[in-house]
Write a structure and sequence with these properties.
The protein has 238 residues and is mostly helical. It has one domain. The chain has eight helices and no strands.
């Protein structure tokens, strides 16, 4: 059990320590806790970058212990599918959040460059190495394959804490495992994950302008494209 929960636990402990140290120096500098909350919401993206620098080498080293032999990856198809799914989800989730959930998920923007680095590159690498590369492989050694898939996807979803993101990450979590198993290479899941997150980051400034007709067209084109891809793939298999 320790091997399964070790890396998420260590990650969150280090994350907590970084936040605690940051809060300690901020408040001791004469600022209040309310001011820190505002300060942290602006700077938390940098903590993701720092955590990535610390953990990526450690996670890669641990993942290599499984000695998985990879296949040639179709990078273009992974990126293209990631773009389509990201556009579909974000348009749908944007209006769903505004109408029902009111989570504020789309209420603000961070610096686009740091966001691309943190959530578009570092986040996917850390999450895929941790969840698909290590946790999933550890679970496969202990439980049935389907149970390993469900548990990995469940753990991955609940760490996101936002109801819309939990639903979304639970759904795409199965795709991450599918591509990992298809290519037997964690880089496939990382590439697909990156394409989702980078598309979200680049599309977000346009989305929150709330130009309904434009968002509707993007959603419709993405839906039609996904349907065509599904039919084409089904035809090839037949």
């Amino acid at each position: 059990m320790w091997k399964i929960i070790k890396w998420p636990l260590i990650y969150f402990v280090v994350q907590f320590l970084l936040i605690f140290i940051l809060a300690y120096y901020y408040i001791n500098g004469g600022n209040n806790i309310e001011g820190f909350n505002s300060f942290f919401s602006d700077k938390q993206i940098y903590i993701v970058i720092i955590l990535g620098i610390i953990f990526i080498p450690l996670l890669i080293s641990n993942y290599r212990h499984f000695k998985v032999k990879g296949k040639k990856i179709n990078i273009v198809s992974l990126i293209f599918l990631g773009i389509i799914i990201s556009l579909l989800y974000n348009v749908f989730a944007y209006y769903l959040d505004g109408l029902f959930f009111k989570t504020g998920l789309y209420s603000s923007q961070s610096n686009i460059i740091t966001t691309l680095i943190a959530t578009g590159i570092i986040g996917p690498i850390v999450e895929e190495l941790m969840f698909r590369g290590i946790i999933y492989n550890e679970l496969k050694l202990k439980v049935a394959p389907m149970k390993a898939i469900l548990l990995t996807t469940f753990f991955f979803a609940i760490i996101h804490l936002n109801v819309l993101q939990i639903i979304y990450t639970f759904a795409v979590g199965f795709l991450f495992i599918f591509f990992y198993e298809k290519y037997k290479d964690i880089k496939a899941a990382i590439i697909f994950h990156m394409s989702l997150n980078i598309t979200t980051t680049l599309f977000l400034p346009l989305l929150i302008k709330n130009i309904f007709i434009l968002n509707y067209i993007v959603f419709l084109i993405s839906l039609i494209t996904l349907f065509i891809l599904f039919k084409y793939t089904k035809t090839l298999k037949a």
